Amino acid sequence: MASDPYKELGVSRGASADEIKKAFRKLAKELHPDKNPGDKITEEKFKRVTAAFDILGDAEKRKKFDAGQIDAEGNEQFRGFGGGRGGNPFGQGMGGGMGGGPGGFSHTGGPGGRANFEGIDLDELFGMFGGAGRQRGARDFTARGQDVKATLEISLEDAIAGATRRIQFSDGRTLDVTIPKGASDGQVIRLRGQGAPGRGAENGDALIELKIEAHPVYRREGADLTMDLPVSVPDAVLGGKVRVPTPEGVVQMTVPKGSNSGQVLRLKGRGAFAGGKRGDLLAKLVVTLPDEQDETLRAFAEDWRAKRPYTPGR
């Protein structure tokens, strides 16, 4: 008989979802097989705790369990077996059709219409129906473990160049996740067998969704990256080579003669990835004055304004 999931987690039936989650985390950390190698008793208790959280951690399953629609292992309850309102699940005519005698399935009259199962192997009988609704054999039920989902935040540089990052799950486990080169935001990495334990079957998988963090320099626009590139007045007027930071290191770019703020220069193939394709890096020029202006610059500006009056936009 399956145990009560509330008792397994040590919570009351009125416990909140948060209380249930906290109780599971605490027990999972204490009982995890990696922490108790070779301890079969603790391993079995860990499996029961995990199975209990599988029911109570899911709002819909918990509702069904509380209503008696499923048992503690998630199986639908088989109602109406034997006498009473539900009747014989095998049909009213089945009793007489199998005949009386030794080992037979004969109907005995009287109140409630109880059937005589003497000599019948119930496990074998339920097996004829694919094991559906078995209660005596419920502990023999096998099922693949559930998949677990998690989000891993990574840097833009990690997404472009690839990396290995560690993630921790709610049960205390840690896993090293290999981020492929050219990963994109929202990409899901599947780790086979790293999900919830199975019941006599294989474990589920861990599904890791990658989330690329906001970058202090670059802004993502699909596969392209945009950035502001400060340039000096001489470089903007006369042109010249300037240093440009990219996700993979600093490169040099030529600023054309007579450049203005707002002009965009493009570095091909230096952007991010989206849909398996790499975009470009777009550098928006920002003509910038020095923090401290010397007399030479001030004199030049005064002479320029006096001899060549110029108002932008007119």
UniProtKB/TrEMBL annotation:
Gene3D superfamilies: DnaJ domain, Urease metallochaperone UreE, N-terminal domain. CDD domains: DnaJ, DnaJ_C. It holds the Pfam family DnaJ. Residues 4-69 form the J domain. It comes from the Bacteria. Residues 88-111 are annotated as: Disordered. Keywords: Chaperone. PANTHER family: DNAJ HOMOLOG 1, MITOCHONDRIAL-RELATED. This is J domain-containing protein.
